[in-house]
Amino acid sequence: QVRLVESGGGLVQPGGSLRLSCAASGFTFSSYNMNWARQAPGKELEWLASISENGRNTYYADSMQGRFGISRDNGQNTLYLQINSLKPEDTAVYYCIRGLTTNGERGQGTQVTVSS
User: Fold this and answer.
1) CA-derived radius of gyration, the chain
2) What are the backbone angles phi and psi of residue 74, rounded to the nearest 5°?
3) Percent helix, strand and coil across the chain, each rounded to 5?
4) Would you write out the chain's pLDDT as a tens digit for each of its 116 residues?
């Protein structure tokens, strides 16, 4: 059974940083492209970044370039998202999603709130 568990969210002040984690189990993690996406209240799911199976290739939404960093540790079956220079508009639930699109399996999400 595919299981994805996100963690690392919380309340952070504008300008701060967070590293989100996604622990994967129930499938061969190293065989799948992985994504991060987020959903703010009242808005649609927004794709943020993707990483290839071996971690060599990363892709970002244009608006996320420079502040977001996706990475993975296949030995630990864990996906990461580093977010720097956080802004109030980054407030959302952040999800890791398995596969080539945002239609794949996802976890329960981790809440990130950016506020002073």
Assistant:
1) 13
2) -70, -25
3) 10, 50, 45
4) 999 999 999 999 999 999 999 999 999 999 999 999 999 999 999 999 999 999 999 999 987 768 999 999 999 999 999 999 999 999 999 999 999 888 989 999 999 999 99
Q: Which residues of 104-116 are buried (b: 16+ CB within 10 A; e: fewer)?
A: bbbbebbebebee
Residue 42's CB is within 10 A of a number of other CB atoms, namely 5
In eight-state DSSP terms, residue 36 is E
Cα distance between residue 30 and residue 65, in whole Å: 25
Instruction: Label residue 53 left, alpha or beta by phi (over 0 means left) and psi (-120 to 50 means alpha).
Output: alpha
